[in-house]
Amino acid sequence: MRTNSLISLWIYIIFLVVGCEKTPKAPGLGTNPYNTGNAQAVPTGTGNQQTGTPETPSDNPVDLQAEALAILDKACVSCHSATNIQGNFGSLDNVEAMLASGRYLVAGSPERSLVYTKLAPVGNMPPSGALKPEEVATIKNWISSLKAVQVVPLRDTQVLDIIQRDIQTNVSVADQDQIRYFSFHIPNNVGTNEAGLESMRKAFFKVVNSLSRSPVLVKPVAVDPKKLIYRLKLDEMGIPVQLFEEVITDFYPFSQQFVNNVSDATAIQAAQNDQSLRTATGSANYLIRADWFIATATLPLPYERLLQLGADQAELDAQLGVNIVDNLANDRVLRSGFKNSGVSSQNRMIERHSQNNGLSYWISYDFARLDQIENLFANPLGPTGTSPSKAFQHDGGEIIFQLPNGMLAYRLVNNAGVILDKGPTSIVKQNDAPSQFLSAIVNGVSCMNCHQAGLLYKKDEVRAFAQANIASFSQTEVERILTLYPEERIFKDAMDKDNAFYYNALKQLGIDPKTPDPVNQAFRFFNRSMSKNDVKEELGVSEAVVDSLLQNEPYRTQWASLRTQGFISRQEFSLLQNQALEQARIEINVAAPVVGDFLATPDCMFASQVQMDNCLIQNVDGLALAPSVPQGSSK
């Protein structure tokens, strides 16, 4: 349970990871230890068994763009975003806006792009020191590969037409209540290039399967030629419809109902489609923005609920058939202990168990101090209560368990099994975290990024220490240590086999484990600094309507930077978006999320060191605009 007393009790917990060091290249795929035949390690999803093409994202310049953005995110975004506008440049986290500027990014011309020419040694950026030559080369090659984007906007009324035709033509009536549609049309409309869209598709596929309890990989079906709208069947993920509905209703900030209150043929058709789709699916949220889903379903509260992790570690362990105490007593574990984890300054130990279905369950034991009882080398047995002598006392850890489809799932806990949402940055940090995280390690999305290449190997040092210091241990203790901490080849072989299962799953989803995590990039896209064009497309109105909004309060003050071609944050937009929609679009009604828009804002990241229950944005109500604001057109 999430109680303040438990939170305060463990406020200084370290947790994380089965390594979050520099990500290695993924080794070659091995034999899946859970596959007894010659088939692939993870069965290919069968889509909805309906007309349509199960889409696996194809190879293209996604990886080059992802690598370049990862470099810029790490080196530059902290000083050049909506929350920190240095040098009058606050859009480095918004590729589309930089391209639209004609200065910061010029497609195909790095020598005309300030993002490149400002880099040292020619320029003086970043102030912390010049990038590595290979990093500069990556950025140059990426800009050279960019092509001018010719945006053909897909309006929300057109989206309704497409999915209405699809559900009537390609989905049986019996299956319609299981169907949900996910749209990339907003990223398309703001000018995201094909590499960016393809990266988001991969992120979507990864998130869907990282939330699935099905043994079969789920491959959503593209229902339009540009692959901007996907159909997903919830029971293929093993997610109950009621659970999915509850989570979306609690957190989805873009719920809209098209109403027949204007004499416009397009709006009237949209209202008819909307009502028909609500009836067929039994849901007011049959259409969900994919960029929001990727960025939000991977944050702790929605992630925990959709993945059905249970209230605490005890519930999860019982669900998976893992009894840690019994496994230790019967030598059914493999351990590796080491001094330098790469995340914190203290020693760490990682331990492998098996679930009741034979899949892996890894847990780390992490320490806040290096006193005697937390010194893993002096006390390599335990934890406390599981060994009569030489038992360590840990502070917390990370659980990584394999899903039946081969993907990885995550949970952070303290040493009492209480779930944690993030780690205190005073102890552990994620150096390449999005700026919203303030370097905190956040369960779900941070873990997916850190473990894009799978479980990260660390060589055991405890076994050799015990053998070299036999006088410090009894004969019984030495035998126990050598049993729990096996020879390197045994431990590494087990981890390699677990990773092979994961790599096979990623490969079948079109994702290369050696490349930057697409979920991390999609999170950064959704939470980027927003330009006036972004706001225009998010609201589905014309630029003239946005300009009119900006002449009146509260937009004149709270979105003031948009009046001077500046940027606002996702948080600033979320606070007023429903109010703006109600003022600007009479053909739709908006419904605020029951709990709130769940955003990793700097305020909520500061407010609590280990939990994120307060990361909720409520729309501002009660501030009327002057009647001079013109009505927007349906887009």
Task: Give a brief rundown of this model.
Among the domains are: 4-39 and 306-519, no CATH class; 62-145, no CATH class. The protein has 24 helices and 17 strands. Helix 11 (290-296) crosses helix 19 (518-526).
Description of the molecule:
The chain has 635 residues and is of the alpha+beta class. Among the domains are: 4-39 and 306-519, no CATH class; 62-145, no CATH class. It has a six-stranded antiparallel sheet with strand order 9-10-11-12-13-14, covered by helices on one side. Strands 1-5-6-4-8 form a five-stranded mixed sheet. Helix 2 crosses helix 8 (194-210), helix 8 packs across helix 19 (518-526) and helix 11 crosses helix 19 (518-526).
Write the layout of secondary structure elements.
Layout: H1 4-9, E1 53-54, H2 62-75, E2 80-81, E3 84-85, H3 95-101, H4 114-117, H5 133-145, H6 156-170, E4 179-183, H7 185-189, H8 194-210, E5 221-222, E6 229-233, H9 241-251, E7 255-258, H10 265-281, E8 287-289, H11 290-296, H12 300-306, H13 313-320, H14 324-329, E9 334-338, E10 348-354, E11 360-366, E12 396-402, E13 408-414, E14 419-420, H15 445-450, H16 462-468, H17 475-484, H18 488-508, H19 518-526, H20 532-539, H21 543-549, H22 555-558, H23 570-584, E15 588-591, E16 597-598, H24 602-607, E17 616-617
Parallel strand pairs: 4-8
Antiparallel strand pairs: 1-5, 2-3, 4-6, 5-6, 7-15, 9-10, 10-11, 11-12, 12-13, 13-14, 16-17
Helix pairs in contact: 2-5, 2-8, 6-10, 8-11, 8-19, 11-19
